[in-house]
Amino acid sequence: MRCYAGEKIALFIDGSNLYAAARALGFDIDYRKLLDFFATKGRLIRAFYYTALVEEQEYSPIRPLVDWLDYNGYTMVTKPTKEFTDAQGRRKIKGNMDIELAVDLMEMAENIDHAILFSGDGDFRSLVEAVQRKGVRVTVVSTVQSQPPMVADELRRQADHFTDLTDLAPNISRSVRQETQQDLALEAAQKAMFEDAEKNDYVP
Q1: Peptide bond into 149 cis (omega under 30)
Q2: Does residue 67 lie within any of the structural domains?
Q3: Which domain holds residue 155?
Q4: In the predicted structure, residue 16 carries a pLDDT above the cut 70
Q5: 8 has which bridge partners?
Q6: Phi/psi of residue 72, each to 5°?
């Protein structure tokens, strides 16, 4: 991770993408440790976390995770998922947050030196190129250690730097020995957020 002392940093976390990458590598993210780690790398201006929410019930099992992140230093960007039926009659749930992330990154570009994008989605290549023209360095965090790799080659090439999630794991993963009831509740909420969506043919 190439960061310079005093540079203004912002994190842009594609929640479902980061969760899928960490799960493919066999570890859980400790979001408190993640925030603390990047706070030591420069002036951490903002940490955005993007996720679509299935809001079919009065109480959602993912609410503990959303609330915890919201109260502990993350700027939560959420929207309801949309349900539809495809031509084969299959139930689909759509919850794409790409536009929200792109708008925030373009707006923040004038106020930061370094954007750290937690996503491997190739659709972000043009966005990365656009903010680079504004003088912002961009680091993409994903992994090529999974099968298949979680990062699109065109996004990795466009980024100023690529950091494999495996290199960050010692600094941002949750230790099993230190798990608390809150940690377990947050992990259960995260699974409910993303794995249930996969069962319903989640379309990113």
Answers
A1: no
A2: yes
A3: 8-203
A4: yes
A5: 43
A6: -125, 40
Residue 116 contacts residue 11 (beta carbons within 8 Å) = yes
How would DSSP label each residue in 28-83? -B-HHHHHHHHHTSSEEEEEEEEEEE---SSS-TTHHHHHHHHHTT-EEEEEE-EE
Kind and range of the H or E run holding 135 = none
Mean pLDDT for the chain overall: 84
CATH number for the domain that contains residue 87:
3.40.50.1010
**Residues 33-63, buried b or exposed e (16+ Cβ, 10 A)?**
bbbebbeebbebebbbbbbbbbeeeeebebe
* The two structure tokens encoding residue 78: 């959420």
- Which DSSP letter does residue 120 get? -
Query: Does residue 150 fall inside a structural domain?
Result: yes
User: What tokens does 185 get?
Assistant: 């509740």
> In the predicted model, is pLDDT for residue 41 greater than 70?
yes
109 DSSP 8-state letter: G
pTM: 0.82
User: For residue range 53-106, what is the model confidence (pLDDT) as tens digits?
Assistant: 776 655 566 678 888 999 999 999 988 776 656 667 665 555 578 999 999 999
Let me know if residue 44 belongs to a domain. Answer: yes
- Residue 2 lies inside a defined structural domain of this protein: no
Of 152, 174, 161, 187, give the one whose Cα is nearest residue 41: 161
Total count of domains within the chain:
1
Distance CA 49, CA 10 (A): 11
Q: Who's near 88: CB < 8 A, 6+ residues apart?
A: none
